[in-house]
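[step 3/7] inverse_fold.run input=structure_tokens len=238
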């Protein structure tokens, strides 16, 4: 096993599958089963979940009615809902979990704590981090990098619908070429937006490898943990 402790970033869009918003039971079941496989291998898995599948339902509300701060808090609460739902699917396949939230809500989840998170990971529990960082103006991508650093993860895995980073949008340009490896500096120069710039900067400054991969292709998660070259590896130097 190449990566003993990993942090998996799951976007809300990944959880909704082909639906316009909400949750896709098939996807949740698939992700839960793949995480169980890694846990059974002896891996330690933490998860940061986005909320775009729920927050997207508010997209028609006029911006002058709900400002950025209010919108960000709605998004944070959406990640809590996703975390509770995913916990149920993990429990269903026999995986013990712990939800940690950046916004206190004691009846639902325990407050975020580095030491308790690491202790739970060492016990074989999947730790689900919700509510982002608890502050507006920070994305769940940035939260994922920060949590990965705090728990001393070996790698951050960003699960997307695309199997890596390309020179151009592969859905629009059939001649787009995929990068197997790319440096953080090149990501900045190319303006890659698969994660926000703050997240990439934080990863670069702290030498955290980030892998962008297709989460929907079966066994990709297991293969990555085992060391197979899947997706695109972003590192300080390549």
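[step 3/7] decode complete -> sequence:
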């Amino acid at each position: 096993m190449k990566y003993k402790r990993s942090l998996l970033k799951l976007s809300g869009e990944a959880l909704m599958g082909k639906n316009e918003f909400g949750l896709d039971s098939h996807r949740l079941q698939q992700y839960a089963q793949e995480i169980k496989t890694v846990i059974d291998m002896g891996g330690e898995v933490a998860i940061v979940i986005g909320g775009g599948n729920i927050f997207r339902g508010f997209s028609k509300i006029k911006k002058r009615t709900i400002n950025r701060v209010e919108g960000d808090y709605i998004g944070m609460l959406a990640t809590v809902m996703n975390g509770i739902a995913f916990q149920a699917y993990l429990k269903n396949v026999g995986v013990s979990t712990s939800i940690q939230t950046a916004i206190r809500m004691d009846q639902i989840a325990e407050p975020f704590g580095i030491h308790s998170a690491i202790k739970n990971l060492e016990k074989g529990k999947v730790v689900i981090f919700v509510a982002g960082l608890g502050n507006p103006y920070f994305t769940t991508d940035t939260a994922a990098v920060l949590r990965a650093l705090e728990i001393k993860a070996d790698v951050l895995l960003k699960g997307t619908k695309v199997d890596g980073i390309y020179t151009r949008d592969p859905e629009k340009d059939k001649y787009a070429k995929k990068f197997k490896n790319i440096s953080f500096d090149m990501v900045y120069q190319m303006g890659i937006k698969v994660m926000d710039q703050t997240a990439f900067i934080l990863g670069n400054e702290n030498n955290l490898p980030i892998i962008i991969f297709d989460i929907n292709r079966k066994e990709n998660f297991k293969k990555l943990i085992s060391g197979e070259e899947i997706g695109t590896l972003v590192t300080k130097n390549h």
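[step 4/7] annotate
The mean pLDDT is 93.
The CA atoms of residues 187 and 193 lie 9 Å apart.
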